Amino acid sequence: MQVKLTVKSDCEDTCFYTRLSIVKKEGYYGLRDDINQISNFDKNYKPSSEIEMDFSFDEHSFVVKKGEKLRIDVSSSAFPLYVRHTNNKGLFSAQTTAKIAKNTIILDKSFLTIYFETHSDS
Predict the structure, then answer these.
(1) Is residue 48 over pLDDT 80?
(2) Does residue 120 lie in a domain region?
(3) In the chain, at which residue ranges do the beta strands (DSSP E only) sit?
(4) Domain of 44?
(5) What does the alpha-carbon distance between residue 121 and residue 66 come to, in Å, rounded to a whole number?
(6) Measuring CA to CA, which residue among 47, 48, 53 is closest to residue 35?
(7) I want to staple 11 with a disulfide (CB 3.0 to 4.6 A). Which of 55, 66, 77, 87 is the partner?
(8) How far apart are CA 91 and CA 101, in angstroms?
(9) Residue 3 burial (CB < 10 Å; 0-12/13-18/19+)?
(10) What residue spans of 1-103 are helical by DSSP H?
(11) Lowest mean per-residue pLDDT among 20-24, 59-63, 82-86, 97-101
(12) Dihedral sign, CA of 10, 14, 18, 19?
């Protein structure tokens, strides 16, 4: 499974976090997640320009039963799972300030790819 997001931000660097979950009648359960920052794809990113970011999920097998759904969440943070991103360019531990990022996902240029097999209940 992999996700390709086309995004833009008003900051020189920020993070995007993706999580794939299965939704059952009793609630939803996270299957896989990934996080990455713009500077890993373009060290000279110019704010407000579009950039493609790739996210990979470890191989995982699961069953989706009738009535269940897959859910994809995208955010710019995942604290406390991951270290906070200050939305400033540079090493996170050297940052002394933080700012709010205004991020955009270009939906018609973004997608989730899932490889699957179907099985009968016989």
Answers:
(1) yes
(2) no
(3) 2-9, 15-24, 27-37, 51-56, 69-75, 103-105, 111-113
(4) 2-113
(5) 12
(6) 53
(7) 87
(8) 17
(9) buried
(10) none
(11) 59-63
(12) negative
**Whether pLDDT at 120 is above 80:** no
Write out pLDDT tens, residues 52-86.
999 998 887 888 899 999 999 999 988 888 888 99
Tell the residue number behind the tokens 């993070």, with chain if given. 15
| Rounded-to-integer distance, Cα 71 and Cα 30, Å | 9
Structure-block tokens of residue 48:
């407000």
> Is the residue at 118 inside a domain?
no
Euclidean distance between CA atoms 68 and 76, whole angstroms:
26
Domain annotation covers residue 59 = yes
- pTM beyond cutoff 0.90: no
